[in-house]
UniProtKB/TrEMBL annotation:
Source organism superkingdom: Bacteria
Sequence ranges assigned to domain FPG-type in this UniProt record: 238-272
NCBIfam families given in the database record: PRK10445.1 (NF007763)
Similarity-based family: Belongs to the FPG family.
Name of the protein: DNA-(apurinic or apyrimidinic site) lyase
EC number: 4.2.99.18
BP-aspect Gene Ontology terms: base-excision repair
An example Gene Ontology molecular-function term: damaged DNA binding
Residue span(s) of domain Formamidopyrimidine-DNA glycosylase catalytic: 2-101
Signal peptide interval: none
Native source species: Zymobacter palmae
Keyword Nucleotide-binding tagged: no
């Protein structure tokens, strides 16, 4: 399932094709959105944001289209003369003079206004998005201090979207590895230095995954693996999905355990 970096890349792609020129055609499959089709034609999409796994498309008149892909939803982009063609149920179609963006299979699609979008029941529960809201190390450190987060174990906290939105399962393992921390440790038990290192790593690893299309491994470790002809899955991550393989840093075999009912990978030497 895509995590924050993948959803942010979708937002970037949609913004690239939808913001330059006004919409020439708008189509919704949901009956309650049909009345807005004609109203949105001729408007520009001013910007596209991601917030956790939700996408927010803002139009010139202030309306905001909220979509969440859930398990099966998928955005597809193509040229007008070569539109996407997926064997899925079409939910949304937005067409400019050059491009067409279509959402398939998703069912969580609603239209809001920029003045009320913060009241959306899903978004209201989310913390700031690491890639969208300009989150800083200082802001993460402040959130560490909040009573609802300070006594949490790191393995559960990093998946809590109320803490920071957009961090999913592969990011959790990679963040803890690069920060040198174990999932059962609590925020309150960390030294100020460890907290600052964790905050920095959260930003670094998430941004790396965004820039590199889901790759979190560092160049020094992935480059020789690529040169050896290994597949992407074998050099994409430092620890995630690598149980039984040697740690790139120390050679210790990577281990796996279930934390909050989801698989987590770690190096017992580097994270001791």
């Amino acid at each position: 399932m895509p995590e924050g970096p993948e959803v942010r890349r979708i937002a970037d792609r949609l913004a690239k094709v939808l913001t330059p020129t006004p919409l020439e055609d708008v189509w919704f499959s949901l009956a309650d959105l049909k009345p807005f089709e004609k109203r949105l034609v001729g408007q520009r999409v001013t910007h596209v944001d991601s917030w956790g796994k939700a996408l927010l498309l803002t139009f010139e008149d202030g309306h905001v289209l909220y979509t969440h892909n859930q398990l099966y939803g998928r955005w597809a982009v193509g040229r007008v003369h070569a539109p996407p063609s997926l064997s899925r149920a079409l939910r949304v179609s937005l067409v400019t003079d050059r491009h067409i963006a279509q959402l398939y299979s998703a069912t969580d699609i609603t239209l809001w206004h920029r003045d009320t979008i913060h009241e959306h029941p899903f978004l209201a529960k989310l913390g700031p998005d690491v890639l969208t809201h300009g989150v800083t190390i200082e802001q993460i450190l402040e959130r560490f201090e909040q009573p609802r987060f300070a006594r949490r174990r790191l393995g559960g906290l990093l998946l809590d979207q109320a803490f920071l939105a957009g961090i999913g399962n592969y990011l959790r393992s990679e963040i803890l590895f690069f920060a040198g921390l174990m999932p059962h440790w609590k925020v309150a038990d960390l030294s100020p230095v460890a907290r600052e290192r964790l905050a920095s790593v959260i930003l670094d690893v998430t941004q790396r995954a965004w820039r590199q299309a889901g790759v979190t491994n560092i160049d020094a470790w992935q480059t020789p693996l690529k040169a050896a002809g290994l597949k992407r899955a074998q050099w994409r991550h430092a620890v995630f999905n690598r149980a039984g393989e040697p740690c790139h840093a120390c050679g210790t075999l990577i281990e796996r355990q279930d934390v909050t009912s989801r698989r987590l990978y770690y190096c017992s030497h580097c994270q001791r």
